[in-house]
User: Fold this.
Amino acid sequence: MDEILRGGIPYGSTVLAAGTCGSGKTTMGMEFLVRGALAGEACAHFTATEPSVKLLENIRQYAFFDMNMIDSGLINVFDMDVLYSWLGLDKASFDLDDVHALIKAIVDIVNTIGVTRLVIDSVTTLCYKIKSEQLIRDFLFTLGKKLATLGCTTILISEITSATENAHWSSFGVEEAIADGIIVMGDVERMGHLLRFLQVVKMRGTAHSRAKHAIELTPLGVMLTPMLKWGAVSDKTSKWGQ
Amino acid sequence: MYELDQRIAEQLTEVSLSSSVQVRCGNSNAFMVTASTLIPLMQMFEMGGVYICATRGAVEIIEAFNSIGVDVSNIQFIDLVSSGILGGTDVPYDNITFVDSPIMLESVLLRTLYTLRIISSERNFVLIDSVNALAIYNEERMLAEYLHTFINTFRQREVLSIILNIPDQVPPAVLSNLDLYCTDLIDRGQVVIH
Amino acid sequence: MDKQVQFSKEDEEFFGSVGSFGVPKFDNAMHGGVPRGFLVVGFTDVGSGSELFAKQFTSPAEEPDNTILISTNESELEIARVYNKYRWPTDIGVRTLGEEYNARVLEKELLASRYRLEGFKLPDIQRLAQTRFVDDDTQDFLTEMTNEIMAMGPYFRAVIDSLDFFMQREDPSRVVAMLRMMQAHTQLHRGILFITVSKDTITPAIKQEMAAIADMVCDFKVRTIGSDFETSMTVTKFRNAPENLSIMVYRVTPEEGITPETVERIA
Assistant:
């Protein structure tokens, strides 16, 4: 990834990792945190899509992950539904006050622990509770701005149904505009088989590669290689539900 | 005692770790040529490595070597064939991993890279068996591109690449690419007249 | 498969077939008291004295450790004060769900307000990072209450004052379902269970359903006569003994608590 990005993700960036289901977003996000923790950075993961117990159980199979990082507080995993409960937000939808409370809580946590790497998985699930599109925009914009001020590099994981060239990477029409970087992950179908791919569409401040890369989720982490150009002749980008 | 072609071993002494060797064989001598290439690498040069099985399943290859008294337990096999057979991945060897299909060429490359990272041997090879089998599933230009990438990837990493093929059954574009990019040639190809 | 409860001869002799209402004059009018195994439901008006009646109902306390008052509106202190005033036994079981609700649920809401206003401190964040599950055990008071009754042994005496708390927070049909379970348990174990519910908190359909489940139904009323209030309890249902349908007009005295003035039969 660092090669593709010609060095890495610039500090303080908010990166949208938009992907279809099973494309490796959570694994990539967790590896991003683990590599940071290994370098002594304080890291945080907010999980909204799956309970942290299940997340940690699934991530244990990867050799790059060490449970000691969680136990020692180098990587802090927060369940969004526990956070909602603590903030009195266990309700069906959030209003303006609730959104501000949530932003304040996340920023508080980042600021107090000194988090420099943050993953929110997924921003799509989080935003489902915010009923107005305007409020979603405000939420994402304000959150991104505050986190950048604190020097926190953030990956917002977003779930999309299609990773085609003409697709939008935002579920709510706004994430791709406010993000400093966009990494798209999905599947290509080749003769009935699915191959995972990753492509950096945007990364402000870097002369990144825009090539499509095949990825494997190995116990050592995410491994990438450029996709074969002649493969594109027969490859179809997979869309869920079709 | 199984008779190997000693001249192959002699030719192998002239290659380096960043070499890429095209090994040609015929239909009737494929196993002999493969064994004559692999056994010196393992025994004489004490190398470990990855054997990419596109022609036959890894179990068949392991058992063929076992039958001639050669232990290949320190070689890692990437089996591209057995996933297509029901029950084919239920095997009694722990040095075999599976890729769903020979068309998933990028996955093969990544799996090979991963395997090389986890094995303990310092000097390694990767062996593709064979280009012909890959050519059944993959379009000519794509396969040519892949082999080019494959050779360059392992050359950069100082991993010896061995590419088996039966030349008269390999698409011309692919064969000409192999001729161009491989640094060495071991030619035991046979023309069988029926 | 029918569950059989064994009753000893001594218990049968000791407890008999009826138990006191806690109001001796009313017992006399009702042929000794309330039959063992009865669920008594009281539909109440505000100011009718039903809360005092409910407490007085526990006062016979044949077995104090098998007697319980479950209150949703009052504190333990208030209840103890009333029992001491009328010299009723204080060694019975008392559960104040209202106080528990305040402690568990309202406290949680206070904490949420604090976090929203003041933010998280480091110990809070560390605790949050280690909390893997939402603390859900604070919420289901209905199940807790039902379990409390279901755990009572043979010849128990229990009072629930009142079901309004649950009607306001739960699906009424779920409350009625729990009522059925408690009725079955009461019948099987020859217990006596008295439950109050305000008429204003339930729909006519729910009232009808509850009345159908109950073995005895009492209607607590209050009416103004001139400048005075008259409190009365009408027995509108008495299973298998319609002759017991009656109206009891009562007042509260410092000596006896609920003190009947007249008891008139209506059947």
About this structure: The two ends of chain C are 38 Å apart (CA to CA).
